[in-house]
Amino acid sequence: MSTVAERLKVLQGHLKHGQQASYFDSPKRFRFTLDNPRLTEEQRIFYEHNGYIVFKNLVPHHLLDGWSQHFRDICDGKVGRGQMMMMKDISLLKSLKAKDADSVKGERLYNKIQDVMWDEEFFKYIALPEIVDIVKCFTGPNIMAIHTMVINKPPDTGSDTSRHPLHQDLHYFPIRPADHIVCSWTAMEQVTRENGCLVVLPGSHRGSLYPHEYPQWEGGVNFAYHGVVGFDGHGRVHLTMDKGDTVFFHPILIHGSGANRTEGFRKAISCHYAASECNYIDVKGTTQDNIATEVEAYAMKKNKTSVDYKEIFHIRARLVNGKEVNI
């Protein structure tokens, strides 16, 4: 049996298993959620089955409007970027002629700002009570923000380069256990299939962490947009969302996003949270070795100093609630 076929067989087994009532008759009924009245039993069961759950209109719209403007002000240089990392849309730049490259500025140039936990305006989202109260259901009371970003999916340049390949977020994190990590992802405006909504493979969170690599896409792919191989034809759910809707999902859940075929931008704000009781692990020699090597090389180029992958995440982590224990 081929490697791809083996992966699909394993994933199909997880999906089938998640539909069986006997799974919830086991001594440990809930693996992925903690006892907390913020989630109903129905919501917990949905997350256990699927690896994600959406809360409608969770984040106030006036806050999202303010953060959208704050993003644009940073891109325009009106607000300092501080310790945040500005990620350019490399695929867009490659598509432009050299003489046109300087004309792309501001919001159009940047498809993402990372490490927004160090910006006090964006940190209001990360520490928002409406978000944190739900995060506690997965992490417990001691919570660290380990990866934060504002995503600005640009209008596609014509070769589907604005899409994000199917991937698992745990690929990027030298932190375990995975079951005490959760992502919150909030639509800052309406998210549709036309402007590149998230797609998920329900139940895949009970699978393994698979190898990731750059997809061989015509037109190129943005920095660190690694993807899993062998799941492109598998059934998926498109998460169309209204402004303020927020999805929480497990770091092993396979997900991605489509191309933005509209003329506008598609913004979202996101944070990965981990229980501070989690531990850093050494990913050298594992399937995560490629991303660790790539990020360490980027850090060396930017800071002119060698930094270990675990240390990079230690530096980037910020306490959100409770107390620091290990991370």
UniProtKB/TrEMBL annotation:
Keyword match Disulfide bond: no
Protein origin, superkingdom: Eukaryota
Enzyme class label: oxidoreductase
Pfam families: PhyH
GO terms for MF: L-ascorbic acid binding; metal ion binding; phytanoyl-CoA dioxygenase activity
GO biological process, one term: fatty acid alpha-oxidation
SUPFAM superfamilies: Clavaminate synthase-like (SSF51197)
EC number: 1.14.11.18
InterPro entries: PhyH (IPR047128), Phytyl_CoA_dOase-like (IPR008775)
UniProt KW keywords: Dioxygenase, Iron, Metal-binding, Oxidoreductase, Vitamin C
Cofactor(s) demanded: Fe cation; L-ascorbate
GO-annotated cellular components: peroxisome
Recorded metabolic or biological pathway in which this protein acts: Lipid metabolism; fatty acid metabolism
Similarity-based family: Belongs to the PhyH family.
Protein name: phytanoyl-CoA dioxygenase
Source species: Folsomia candida (Springtail)
Organism taxonomic ancestry: Eukaryota, Metazoa, Ecdysozoa, Arthropoda, Hexapoda
